[in-house]
Write a structure and sequence with these properties.
CATH architecture of the largest domain: 3-Layer(aba) Sandwich
Number of helices: 12
CATH class of the largest domain: Alpha Beta
Helix content: 40-55%
Number of strands: 10
Bound molecules: zinc ion
Number of domains: 2
Length: about 325
């Protein structure tokens, strides 16, 4: 069997090694506190500190660079691009700014521009070109799964997919198990309801070609759902996603054999609130689309299967999503 993993927003892992290491402020400066929060991956607190520091040092390119890094990690991609642009204007270009810019652009669903910035990072700092993490990020940005070719206006996006790994008729109903996270047991019921909603939407769109049933044990399941508060666990084959990931095992004939989906329900273990239910559902719908056989992405940011997270709080399939699942199960 072959293994495919499909993730969103993977450059972020690169930044854990390069970010926030050049603050250089006096101990009283909130920027130093920001760096500490950054290292602890508490990016919302870090951002508050850096914003305060920026008021005191409005022309510091380092603070702006760190603000952009926090915004990128918090999914505020457009703001991150603006902050890095300002940082570059004030302090000249360095490879960290380029890498943050690339991650933000990937988050906005612009893999080609992201790739340009990573290449720029390597030319600014040739040591980066030899960094295996950088090489992996560059290779990944060439992946056809995140470079959809189909027209954003066609009635579906089947032509832009890498492949369709549908489940066989004899595997219906698909046996689905939602695992309880023992560190977040209170969220199990809500997450199960989100999984059910997502599966129901896709099943309805497929016009009866897909069915599923919940089972209690993971051993009898062929599709397993996990939820987590650790974005580093939304990860497979050593690449990090930020909001969710799907790993599929396929047979020689490309049909789906087994799958695992993981969805981020809280941005970090320290965070007190769970993510907005609509946003969790949107990510879950996207990952379920992969788990039901859509290997690749849409190039239209109104589709659930768009290659990156989009800010609109809408968690329903688009007409193109529905047409795509219908078509791949008819084939
Ligand atoms: Zn995806």
């Amino acid at each position: 069997m072959r293994k495919t993993s499909i993730q969103r927003l993977s450059i972020a892992i690169l930044l854990s090694c390069v970010s926030c290491n050049n603050a250089g402020f006096a101990a009283v400066d909130p920027a130093e506190e920001g760096v500490r929060y950054c290292k602890a991956k508490n990016f919302s607190q870090a951002l508050s500190c850096f914003n305060a520091a920026s008021k005191e040092h409005p022309t510091s390119w380092q603070i702006l660079q760190n603000i952009g890094n926090c915004q990128m990690h918090l999914g505020q991609y457009k703001s991150a691009v603006n902050s890095e642009q300002k940082s570059i204007e004030l302090g000249g270009l360095n490879s960290t700014q380029c890498t943050i810019m690339a991650a933000a652009l990937e988050g906005l669903g612009q893999p080609k521009q992201a790739l340009n910035w990573l290449n720029l990072a390597c030319s600014v700092d040739p040591a980066q070109a030899a960094n295996p993490v950088m090489q992996a990020a560059i290779n990944r940005l060439h992946d056809p799964a995140i470079n959809p070719t189909g027209s954003p206006n066609a009635s579906d996006y089947v032509s832009g997919l890498v492949s369709a790994n549908t489940w066989r008729r004899q595997d219906m109903p698909i046996k689905v198990c939602v695992r309880s996270n023992y560190q977040l047991p209170g969220f199990y019921r809500q997450f199960s309801a989100i999984v059910k909603d997502s599966l129901d939407q896709w099943c309805k769109a497929a016009n009866g070609a897909i069915s599923y049933k919940f089972v209690d044990s993971r051993d009898s399941a062929n599709l397993v759902f996990d939820y987590t508060d650790r974005s580093d666990l939304c990860t497979s084959e050593h690449e990090a996603g930020l909001e969710g990931g799907t790993e599929m095992m396929t047979r020689e004939d490309n049909t789906a054999a087994k799958g695992t989906v993981v969805v981020l329900v809280k941005t970090s273990p320290e965070e007190t609130h769970f993510r907005d239910r609509v946003l969790i559902t949107k990510v879950c719908l996207h990952e379920v689309g992969h788990a039901l056989g859509i290997h690749g992405h849409s190039s239209n940011n109104h589709d659930v299967m768009f290659l990156a997270a989009t800010p609109e709080p809408i968690a329903v399939l688009s007409e193109r999503d529905k047409a795509t699942i219908k078509r791949i199960y008819r084939q």
